[in-house]
Amino acid sequence: MTQTRTRLERGRSALGPALALVHTGRAPTRAVLTAELGVTRATAGAVAAELEALGLIQVDPRPGGATGGQGRPSHRLAIAPGGPVVLAAQVHADGFRAALVGLGGRIVATAPGCMTVPADPARVLDAVVEAGAGLLRETGRRCVGAGLAVPSAVAEPEGTALNPLHLAWAAGAPVGALFSRSLAAAGIGFTGFTGNDVNLAALAEHRHGAGRGARHLLCVATGHRGVGGALVLDGRLHTGSSGLALEVGHLTVNPDGPSCHCGNRGCLDIEADPLTFLTVAGHVPGPEGSLLHQARTLLRDSYHEPAVRAAAHQLIDRLGLGLAGLVNILNPDRIILGGLHRDLLRADPERLRARVTERSLWGRSGVVPIMPCVLDHNSLVGAAELAWQPVLDDPLEALTGAEAAATTG
């Protein structure tokens, strides 16, 4: 007993790193965990046992794919299937979605909410939290945090939405504080974390999707309206000095193009988003479904039509020009595309790659992989990553605090 306690005390600082390895799928067995942490097998075993006791992972003693020391079969590690969750939410131009997300980026339950997003952000955030609270009641799962994705640059650490161009919110809306207030009113006793939707999509893809293994990952994506970008450097989001980096939607890709909300002309934000695609294709947006859904459906079902194909080519060319400029500046080792851009890549991958290659120095000297995002609702999963981060940093402290908050609530 004393030996076990001593091993755990030695490995306690490794609890967070160990959980992060299992969370991102990089430690499928105890042998891999031992090697990645650089500790003894006994210490890794004590760490895994503590994470299992906390209800975060499960340890399966049946042999896994890797072996331990001296050829011994290694215990398999996995996320506890009935473990805690976080409440994650995304607000976009066509409404919102709330979800419960477990470790490993697994969406446990989700509830879409279609509504005209009002000028008062508190109203939609109350609806978001009400939907999330309903999911918690239905599932009976333990909640340990909350995160929110919004279509705006978000000032850190205040959680202020600085430029919600495609919503009726005032610039500088205090969405972080309002989200936390809604959580408290619903009896969910956590401070809510808030971030830009594309930043969070990039974080989710880096940990669980198409960005795994990239050191310098560039993500560019459409939302329901507009275009955003994000950069992950050595595993961390690059958000700049105050959270405003990578506003790639406001790169000029057509100097003679239409005026943008930002005051510039021909920005990527209005040259390569779902509404532009529908308009250029001669399709009048209907009342059913979001603009993003309508654009994806038109591209998928009618790409053979000349007007639709021509619209797709125009957006691909504009997007390629923007990506080439970003490649010249950032020199990423991988680019991932989300939203409608993912569908454009799949529709004509050679055209987009050719545009990037011919316009960029690094594209010509060495091919930069361009890949589609693979996670459904990746901004939601990224919002969950914000909420999970305190647990990944210090599982014991975070879960003790969550229990106290739940008791108080």
Number of strands: 14
Low-confidence stretches: none
Largest sheet, in brief, is: 5 strands, mixed
Helix content: 40-55%
Q: Strand order within the widest sheet?
A: 5-4-3-6-9
Q: CATH first level of the largest domain: which class?
A: Alpha Beta
Structural class: alpha/beta
Q: β content, as a range?
A: 15-25%
CA-based shape = globular
Rg from Cα: 22 Å
CATH superfamily descriptor of the largest domain: ATPase, nucleotide binding domain
- The whole-number mean of residue pLDDT values reads 89
Question: How would you describe the overall organization of this protein?
Answer:
Belongs to the ROK (NagC/XylR) family. It comes from Streptomyces pactum. This is ROK family protein. The protein has 409 residues and is an alpha/beta fold. The protein has 3 domains: 2-79, Winged helix-like DNA-binding domain superfamily/Winged helix DNA-binding domain (Arc Repressor Mutant, subunit A, Orthogonal Bundle), CATH 1.10.10.10; 85-198 and 378-408, Nucleotidyltransferase, domain 5; 213-372, ATPase, nucleotide binding domain (Nucleotidyltransferase, domain 5). It has 16 helices and 14 strands. The mean pLDDT is 89. The two termini are 36 Å apart. It has a 5-stranded mixed beta sheet with strand order 5-4-3-6-9, with helices on both faces.
Topology at a glance:
Elements: H1 2-11, H2 15-23, H3 30-37, H4 41-53, E1 57-67, E2 73-79, E3 85-92, E4 95-102, E5 107-114, H5 121-139, E6 143-150, E7 154-155, E8 160-161, H6 175-185, E9 193-196, H7 197-208, E10 216-222, E11 227-233, E12 236-237, H8 268-271, H9 274-280, H10 291-302, H11 306-330, E13 334-338, H12 340-347, H13 349-359, H14 361-365, E14 370-372, H15 378-393, H16 395-408
Parallel strand pairs: 3-6, 6-9, 10-13, 13-14
Antiparallel strand pairs: 1-2, 3-4, 4-5, 7-8, 10-11, 11-12
